[in-house]
Amino acid sequence: MAKAFFRLQKFLRRTQFLLFFLTAAYLMAGSLLLLQRTRLVIQQGARGASANQVPERMPRAGMVEPRTLQNPRDSPRLLVGTDTLQEPALEQRYSPRWLVSRNSELRQLRRRWFHRFISDQEPVQTAGFKGMKHTAEHKGTYVGCFSDDSRERTLKGAVFYDLRKMTVSHCQEACAERAYSYAGLAYGAECYCGNKLPATAARAEECNSECKGEKGASCGGVNRLSVYSLEELRAAAGRRRNVIYRGCFRAPENLTDTFPASLIQPNLTVEMCSEFCSKKEFPLAVLRGQECYCGYRTGRFPLRAGAEGQRCADADSYCQVYQTPVQDTRCTDRKFLTTKSKVFVALSSFPGAGNTWARHLIEHATGYYTGSYYFDGALYNKGFKGEKDHWRSRRTICVKTHESGKTEIEMFDSAILLIRNPYKSLMAEFNRKYAGHLGYATDRTWKSKEWPEFVNSYASWWASHVLDWLKYGKRLLVIHYEELKQSLIPKLREMVEFLNMTVTEDRLLCVENNRDGNFKRSGAKQKDFEPFTQEMKDLINRYILTVDEALRGRNFTGLPREYVPR
């Protein structure tokens, strides 16, 4: 009995020791893991801070240090070490406080967005479908659920995307403003407009995607459209809609062959002709006497050589042309490349130089999406679907980048280098930084110390970006933003040919009809003060002269004369 008791006591002592040892080991392992994570965070913070410091070392005169940008919009590279260009002492001491590490910022942005995107993609269950709304809070009349074929889409008059805030009312109002009779929603975030109902009806429960911006509301489904009739909304929107007078033009020799639809009616008015063409989904309404014709801009009717308005009243060989609210849809369908591109092409620019606008033009001209080195959810929401695609997938026609430096440039086989007046670029990027893609920074922000710090940092980046691409780019096409605006079709044709694509003249004319896209600021907001001081102008003008000389040294056309200092 004593022996058995002794064995039990020995076993309990061993067990107690074992439990104590395991507890201690567990605590030590946890402490080591905590220390390791803390060290990693500190290292990442140090890297982010060091990436934003201005280098102390000065390269030899006339050369730009090939340092890689960590943040394309928020970490400017500096052009230093030239005899004529001296950076302000402010930058040599410290960087602007808003500069942060691009890698950590983009990782957080992508992680948050994709988490939200994946969670949003979960289809609404049929059990919850009964609670979805169709007409209770919407002015349009719900027609039903229809099948949607992306290759032969019926509602193709206009297309809108919003992966975060799409609502039924937003889609209805957007379509009604453009004189369409029907609005259809799909995938919870896509809006389509048109004047004809889809041919194939679907079961009501198949439209089971909840609107991204409206809980409980049905916004179609996978290849399914929730369709609404807009008759009441169209009547209200008709009072606000603008019909734009394009001018007086010589009529083509055979109007019936040139224009697909026509109407002959006594006492014909501009409103009657515009309404007729809008219902037919044509962007142009053409009047000659009591005759109304509907169609597009084409090679036979390009709308280039306008005539005096009096000729339209006196001669039958001239006609009046009006722009209807309907969108020209001949160039709006886009897709990814079916096979991987053999040539890796960059669309490179300094921030604020019109890269998004150039992407809009290229996508509509070629019919293929453009990619991006970064990810911008606002651009993706507005239809730039290449934003979500990996930038090295080679499924896009070209890739947006603001990067410079030898390594980043030599990754690409060729590049379109877009250059804009630095004064305009700096102001555009400052507006984007403090008010988004379409907003304007407040006067208070312009007059704060943020603006001079911004100019001191970013002006040199404008120059070094161009110089690096001229130095390391393998095959370049230089496009000046001002020339692209002034001569859209010739310059766009040049860009398309550089991308080894062929497009028709009619498609280019369609692009010109849709030239602004969704990211054009509404007019130039005039300021009652001059944002650039004389010191800023002296600095920027020296950079302009340096870039102009470098372009001519590479046998390119120099900068446009309107902003080269004399």
What does this structure look like?
The chain has 566 residues and is of the alpha+beta class. Among the domains are: 141-237; 244-323, no CATH class; 345-519 and 532-553, Rossmann fold. Helices cover 40% and strands 15% of the residues. It contains 19 helices and 18 strands. It has a six-stranded antiparallel β-sheet. α5 crosses α6 (231-238). The longest helix is centred in the N-terminal third of the chain and has 50 residues, at 2-51. The N and C termini lie far apart (111 Å). Mean pLDDT is 78; it is low at 37-72 and 74-131. Keywords: Repeat. Pfam families: Sulfotransfer_1, WSC. Residues 139-231, 242-331 form the WSC domain. One of its GO terms (molecular function) is sulfotransferase activity.
Topology, element by element:
Blueprint: H1 2-51, H2 89-93, H3 102-121, H4 126-129, E1 141-147, E2 158-161, H5 168-177, E3 182-186, E4 190-194, E5 210-211, E6 214-218, E7 224-229, H6 231-238, E8 244-250, H7 255-258, E9 261-264, H8 270-279, E10 284-288, E11 291-295, E12 306-307, H9 309-314, E13 318-323, E14 345-349, H10 355-366, E15 371-372, H11 377-381, E16 399-401, H12 406-410, E17 414-419, H13 422-435, H14 443-446, H15 450-472, E18 476-480, H16 481-486, H17 488-498, H18 505-513, H19 534-553
Parallel strand pairs: 14-16, 14-17, 15-16, 17-18
Antiparallel strand pairs: 1-7, 2-4, 3-4, 3-7, 5-6, 8-12, 8-13, 9-11, 10-11, 10-13
Pfam families: Sulfotransfer_1 (PF00685), WSC (PF01822)
InterPro entries: P-loop_NTPase, Sialate-O-sulfotransferase, Sulfotransferase_dom, WSC_carb-bd
Keywords: Repeat
